[in-house]
Amino acid sequence: MQEIEVKYRLYDLCGLERALADRGLVLSAPIFQDDQAYAHPDWAYGQSKIGVPFARLRTQGDRHLFTVKTPLANELACLEHESEVADRNQMHQAIIQMGFRPTVRIVKTRRTAQVAGMALCVDEVEHAGLFLEIEKVLDADESGTAAQERLNAFACSLGVELERTTDTYDSLVRAALAPA
Fold first, then answer.
1. Where's the CYTH domain (predicted)?
2. Report field, pTM of the whole predicted structure over 0.90
3. Contact, 4 vs 144, CB < 8 A?
C-alpha cells in the first residue's frame, strides 16, 4: 500500500477547529507519539529520498510500531509496511543490526479526525511547530501525486492560513536543531 500525505505549517488552530466543526468534524483527544527515525547507512541528509527505504520505530501509549517507508514520486508519497512489535528496545537493536542508523527523534502530540477516507492530523512537533497533515492510503498502483493534489484541494477548501511543505518531520526537526 501507499501512504500519501500533504503537510502544512498551521498558523490558526482555532480557525482550523472552526472549519472542521462546520463540516461536523471534531479532533480527537491528544495522543503522544515518540518516533525514532532510521536511515540506510549510504544515505545522508541533502540527498534524494526517492527509492530509499527508511525505518521508524514509534511508541504511542503502550504500543510500539515498526514502519518502513520508501518514497516513490516524492518524500510524502511512500510505499509503506507497518507492524506492531512487543519490545521497543529489542526492535531498535534489530533495526541497527539490519544496518540502519538512527537519525532524528521526533516527539509530537497528535489529534486526528477522519473524513472521506482521509486522516486529518494536527501535530505539535517538538522543535518544529504546529502542522496539519492529511493522509490517505492508496493501492500501490494508484498515482500518489494525483492523490496529493486532491488532498491539497481539500486543505485549501478549509479556508484557513496554511503553508504547504514537502519536508518530512525528520527533516524539519533536524533543520530546527541544526546549529545556526
1. 1-175
2. yes
3. yes
